[in-house]
Amino acid sequence: MLRLLRHGLAATAPLWPPIQTAYALVHHAAHLLATPDALDGAALRQAYEEQVLAPMRTQQAQLGSLAGAAAHFQKVTASYWPGLFCCYDVPDLPRTNNDLSSISAPPATWSGARPDARALRRLWSCAEPCGWWP
């Protein structure tokens, strides 16, 4: 059994460094976005660019087979960029799609709970100036 385990570890050893690098970058991105009180929208935007996207671009060659995933991550981030950080300038505005669904979902999904009208106003007030609301 130990021999089999050693063989498996040796065979997969080259795969781990790219996974560790990609995980560290994505984990740091999640950490930045999950600490809303630490930075305002402009500061978070700059930190995200400097600490997540720039390192991801420079380390992309080291990501091996995960380079395509990193490129996709950057492309999706760029598509959301105009409205990605403005919610951090509005106090108590939910930060994620999961948080927003509880206040902006259609009545059939409210499960008896009504959305918080103040939260909806915060959502609309942030969305329009940021330009990400249709």
What is this entry, summarized?
This protein is an all-alpha fold and 134 residues long. It has helices spanning 2-12, 16-33, 41-59, 67-84, 97-104, 117-130.
Major sheet attributes: none
Can you give the helix content as a percent range?
A: 55-70%
Beta-strand content estimate:
under 5%
- Spans where pLDDT lies below 50 across 5 or more residues: none
Query: Could you state the order of secondary-structure elements as H and E?
Result: HHHHHH
**Number of structural units classed as domains:** 2
How would you explain this protein's 3D organization?
With 134 residues, the chain is mostly helical. The protein folds into two domains: 14-84, no CATH class; 90-134, no CATH class. It is 66% helix and 0% strand. The longest helix is centred in the middle third of the chain and has 19 residues, at 41-59. It is elongated and about 55 Å long. The N and C termini lie far apart (59 Å). The relative contact order is 0.10. The mean pLDDT is 77.
Characteristic key phrases:
6 helices, 134 residues, 2 domains, mainly alpha, elongated
